[in-house]
Amino acid sequence: MPITVKRRRGENLNSFLSRTFKVIKKSGILLEARKRKSYVSKPNKRTEKSSALHKKKVLQEVERKRKKGIL
User: Fold this and answer.
1) From CA 43, how far away is CA 5, in angstroms rounded?
2) Beta strands, E only, 3-70
3) What is the mean pLDDT of residues 34-51?
4) Are residues 13 and 34 in the same domain?
5) Which of 1, 12, 14, 65 gives a 20 to 30 Å CA spacing to 40?
6) For residue 22, how far is the Cα from the chain centroid?
7) Using CA atoms, how far apart are residues 2 and 28, in angstroms rounded to an integer?
């Protein structure tokens, strides 16, 4: 849904911009854009499984090094 805001006759630029930003704010487009910007999709099961296995492997390696006194 596009928003059109036309400049009124004799309206200065500052009031036009403030009116335009008010319309954008009321429409909720800015909020929606901010939400979509930071959206992170859920990983699929295969990705979750592989990352869990990797994490487990790294933790085992750290624990092994601790026992040996390297860390």
Assistant:
1) 41
2) none
3) 92
4) yes
5) 1
6) 24
7) 12
pLDDT at 14: 96
The region that residue 5 occupies, defined by phi over 0 for left and psi between -120 and 50 for alpha, beta otherwise, is beta
Q: Pull the structure tokens for residue 28.
A: 């909720």
47 and 36 within one domain: no
> Residue 6: which domain range?
1-40
> Are 48 and 34 members of one domain?
no
Mean pLDDT of all residues in 21-30: 91
pLDDT value of residue 7: 94
Cβ atoms of 6 and 19 closer than 8 Å: no
User: CA 8, CA 10: separation in Å to the nearest integer?
Assistant: 6
Question: The pTM is what?
Answer: 0.48
Same domain, 18 and 48: no
DSSP 35: H
